[in-house]
Structures are given as C-alpha cells and as structure tokens.
Design brief:
By secondary structure, this protein is of the alpha/beta class. 41% of the residues lie in helices and 12% in strands. α1 runs antiparallel to α7, α2 packs parallel to α7 and α3 packs parallel to α4.
C-alpha cells in the first residue's frame, strides 16, 4: 500500500520554507503588533510588509488587503457588509457557489429581505452571461454579483474579466470567491475591475486559519468584527502574526515558481486523464474538469461507471488503499447529501454513480497516479 495525497483542492501540504518562516515568527518575533514597544513594532512592521508584498503582486493598494481567518470569513465579510453598508438590495449568484457564499446569500435574503437571483447554468456548469446581463438590467436596485473564479468541485474557470466588465457597465458591485485561483493563477486588479475577492493560504501551500479579503477603495463597507483598530479598522482582534508571515511566504513562493509549477501540475492532470481513460474507458468527467483548456490545471472530477450501491464503498476503499481524495468537495464529504454542484448539472441516472474529485500539486508524481488508477480499475472490474 502507498500513501497518496490527491486532495489538494481541500488543503495543501505546507512548503518547508513556509514552516521555517512561521517557526521564526513564533520563537523570535512574538510581540503584539498593536504594542508600541520594540517587540510590538517589529511584529507590526512584518504584518505591514506582508500586506505590501501581497498588494504589489496584485497591483492593489496595501490598504485594500485585509487579513482574515480564511476564505469563508472573507466571503462573509464582503457579502454581509455590502448588504448592510453599501445599499445592496439584490444579490446575484449561482447555485453552484461554495457554501460560504451560497449559504451567506440565503441568510442575507432572510435577514435583510434582499432579493436573491440565480444565474442560469449550461450543462457543464458555466454561468450564462446573457442571463447575468438580463438580471443586471431587471430593475434599478443596487446589485452585488458573486461568482467564483474557479469552481472548487468541477474546476470550471470563469471569464472573470468579462463578468467584471459587465458588472462595471451596469453599476453593480462584483465579488469573486478566488480561493481556488489565488496562488495558482495571476491576478491583477488594475486589469480586472473586481470590487472584492477572497483568498485562503492553505490552498497554496500555506497555513490554515489565515487568508485575506481584497476590498477596493471607496466601496462603502464598514467593519464586520468590532473592537480595536486592527486591519485598518475593518477587522478587530490581535493579528495571527505567525499565520500572516506564513501567508506571505506561501504567496511569494507560489508566484515566484508559478510558471514552472503550473506546467508540472498540468502535465500530471493530462497524464491522469489519459491513463484513466485507457484503464476505464467508460469513465466520465464532470463539468469541464476533463477539458484542460477550460478548467483549472489543479483538479479533475470523475464519474466512475459502477452502480450506486457499489459506489458507496468507493471512497472507503480508496482510503484503505492509502489514497486521499474527496467525494465532491471536502466540505461535502462528511455529508449524506450529494454534491449541490453536481446536482445542478447531472441527471438522476448520472448522479447515482459515484463521483470523486482528485486534485494535484507539485508534490505528486506520475507513479502515485499510476497506483491510484490501478486501484480504481481493480475496484471497477471486481
């Protein structure tokens, strides 16, 4: 039995260089960044340097980067504050967003009586931009559009520039959950007029429990967490300094090595698709995940040709063989309910077959993929 980790869309292995940076912060630079003595000033300087590092890479202003506990908090902050403070009366999203967006939008519709509109999807799970425009001109209410850049289950890549331009044209705010794309794709907010987006360090080989929200200047939103004046007043509470240092280190490493690692991981994805089709010709790929031109290079979502009853044992079987992957997303894997994403794009017959998400990183090898494909073939054939 081998140990094979193919669940990188859920979380990633932390780079050794990031661990080193965090250990230094924990052991040597432990001052409270809000303290005025030398220990505090040093910590504060490193927090602000991290903010500048990230902002520079994104072509943003440092004041537009707000550190959070991760993507879920960043999504909640943006949506809630946009409704509460920026006069948003209509939320426009899709039914295949991450639950951090979808459930928040549903809660806001109840709490604030805002209208909630869903963009129609094609059979692959892509938003219909014609329908989006129709929703934008439906009435003159203040609108916020929230569409994820890369779907965390099926890997579809949104045409984020076109959506941002459409929102700008119709005077709507635009938020994107970019948790699966920051650290994996370039992002330049001077070219993409997005108003808000969310990121999480643990998706690009950084620590868990830290991320950031990009909040463009003059959007009118106010703090979600009230207390001290940390994070430009947007988020009270003592900064998780060691995590922020780790975030910065992971972010810099991701973009310094981006071209090389993109190529390496894309080759793994192509290899997995090709060899899996050879081994199990009836296998299918959900959404656009099997199309390397239209999906992220980091994952595939595969539908295995076995019946529903046999499929119940598949994830357990893989785990027993040392293979880590997800049923849908990691957020869904512990649920008895099927994937809300796949429910929107598959019919009842195809939904009955087991679907698995395999997600890759530069720490994976072709030998690991061969082993995984062999285990899958054995399960299907027996």
């Amino acid at each position: 039995m081998q140990n094979v980790y193919l669940d990188n869309a859920a979380t990633t292995q932390v780079r050794p260089s990031v661990i080193t940076k965090m250990q230094e912060a924990l052991s040597m630079n432990y001052g409270n960044p809000s303290s005025t003595h030398s220990y505090g000033r040093k910590a504060k300087t490193m927090v602000e340097q991290a903010r500048k590092t990230i902002a520079k890479r994104l072509n943003a202003a440092p004041s537009e980067i707000i550190f959070t506990s991760g993507g879920t908090e960043a999504d909640n902050m943006v949506l809630r504050c946009a409704v509460r403070d920026a006069g948003v009366k209509t939320l426009i999203t899709t039914k295949i967003e991450h639950h951090a967006v979808l459930h928040t939008a549903e809660a806001l519709a109840e709490e604030y009586n805002v209208a909630l509109r869903f963009v129609e999807l094609d059979s692959h799970g892509n938003p219909d931009l014609g329908h989006l425009e129709a929703l934008l001109i439906e009435d003159d209410s203040k609108k916020l559009v929230s569409l994820m850049h890369i779907n965390n289950e099926i890997g579809n890549v949104l045409d984020i520039k076109s959506v941002a331009a459409l929102c700008k044209e119709h005077n709507a705010l635009f938020h994107s959950d970019t948790v699966q794309s920051v650290g994996h794709f370039p992002m330049d907010v001077s070219e993409v007029p997005v108003d808000f987006f969310a990121a999480a360090a643990h998706k690009f080989h950084g620590p868990k429990g830290v991320g950031f929200a990009f909040i463009r200047k003059n959007t009118g939103i106010k703090p979600l967490i009230i207390g001290g004046s940390q994070e430009r007043g947007y988020r009270a509470g003592t900064e998780a300094f060691h995590n922020i240092v780790g975030l910065e280190a992971a972010f810099e490493a991701a973009y310094e090595n981006l071209s090389e690692e993109q190529k390496q991981v894309l080759e793994l994805k192509k290899y997995f698709i090709t060899e899996l089709k050879k081994a199990i010709p009836e296998v299918a790929f959900n959404g656009w995940s099997g199309d390397v031109e239209h999906s992220t290079y980091t994952l595939v979502n595969v539908r295995i040709p076995v019946n529903a009853q046999k499929g119940l044992m598949l994830l357990f079987h893989l785990d027993m063989k040392g293979i880590a992957c997800s049923k849908g997303s990691a957020c869904q894997s512990g649920s008895a309910m099927g994937s809300h994403v796949l429910n929107e794009i598959l019919d009842e017959t195809e939904m009955a077959k087991p679907s698995l998400r395999f997600s890759f990183s530069m720490f994976n090898t072709k030998e690991e993929l061969d082993y995984t494909i062999g285990v899958l073939k054995e399960f299907v054939d027996n």
